[in-house]
Amino acid sequence: MTQAAQTTASQRRTRLAGRDVIHRWEGNPIVSLEDIPFPCNTVFNAAATKIGDHYLLLIRVEDQRGRSIFALAHSEDGYRFVVDPEPVMTPADTEPFATYEACGIEDPRITCLDGTHYVMYTAYSHYGPRLALAKTDDFTSFTRIALISEPVNKDGALFPKKINGRYARLDRPMVGSQGNIWVSYSDDLIHWGDAQVAMTTRPDHWDCVRVGASAPPIETDQGWLEIYHGVKDTAGGPIYRLGVAMLDLENPAKVVGRAAIPILTPREYYERVGDIGNVVFSCGAIVEQHTGLVKMYYGAADTCICVGIAKLDALITRCFEGEDSG
Ligand code: BMA
Questions:
Q1: Which of 28, 161, 211, 213 is close enough to 157 for a disulfide, judged by CB 3.0 to 4.6 Å?
Q2: How confident is the model at residue 5 (pLDDT cuts 50, 70, 90)?
Q3: Which of 210, 240, 297 to mutate to test the pocket of ligand 1 (most atoms within 8 A of CB)?
Q4: Closest residue by Cα to residue 184 from 213, 210, 211
Q5: Minimum-distance ligand 1 atom for the alpha carbon of 276
Q6: CA dist 127 to 42, 45, 89, 103, 241, Å?
């Protein structure tokens, strides 16, 4: 390729990337298979938290047998991560968790609530995926609290505050191949109920087949900002994209705003090609209070972890933009 042709290709890629409100970090992917110090098949969807100036990712790694486990990665800048030498959480070997984690633990989401770090994750068994909840003080040992749903349910995310005196979560029960986002409540984090549907799939949109919570809800003046994923089926297989919606602060089952177009759609090679191509899937985002920027971590093509950056204000504005904003 000539220099001129190369420039044109790179300019075109920049313009394409500019179509997403999320800016991809130039150093993506930030964690790949080569960065995992122990043998495994692949690395992808990661939960994120920041403790003081220290960034942590709880990353989903598929071991060589084919089950998912969690490893911990550390960073001082949110971009360059070092992964611990051994996994930090593996499928349980004591009941009742052992039966329901027999096929692995997947897609963690971290929520800090009243000073405790909770991890909501998918427990996978021969009976299907269901939600489980654990807590940790140090991210090296995890105390399992409970299995908190029946199958088929995934994409559980705990709100970072009680709502009207109760714990609240988002989740995604399935009906056939369709799935919507629901809200439910609990007094003790163990027993959940009062479930209500919050956000449904949209016919003729990028999120027409399934939607699910991605990062745990972020509190803003306008409501709970939810970064969620949406799936569309195509002749070439599903495409996973990310979008934003705003949920009412007091009643999160009420959607007060929802962007018509995605905030991130697979375009880069590392998002298009991998174990499952055409996937961007987030389980965590960090709001930088001093800059107003959001660092959103996402798994790309079920094969690596990336980070994308956006202004919090831009994500909020997107929630209230109409169908012609694309
Ligand atoms: C979903 C989850 C994610 C995965 C995505 C794309 O159902 O299992 O962990 O990233 O599919 O394969």
A1: 213
A2: low
A3: 240
A4: 213
A5: 12
A6: 24, 22, 21, 10, 27
Cβ of 299 less than 6 Å from ligand 1: yes
Q: Give the mean pLDDT of 30-40.
A: 98
CA-based diameter of the chain, in Å?
65
Strand pairing class (293-300; 304-311) = antiparallel
The minimum-distance atom of ligand 1 relative to the CA of 281 is: 10
171 close to ligand 1 (CB < 6 Angstrom): no
User: Which amino acid residue places its CA nearest to atom 9 of ligand 1?
Assistant: 107
Q: Report CA torsion sign: 98, 57, 198, 221.
A: positive
Q: Determine whether the shortest distance from the Cβ of 302 to ligand 1 is under 6 A.
A: yes
Quick: pLDDT tens for 86-115: 999 999 999 999 999 999 999 999 999 999
Domains and CATH numbers, the chain: 22-319 (2.115.10.20)
45 lines ligand 1 (CB under 6 A): yes
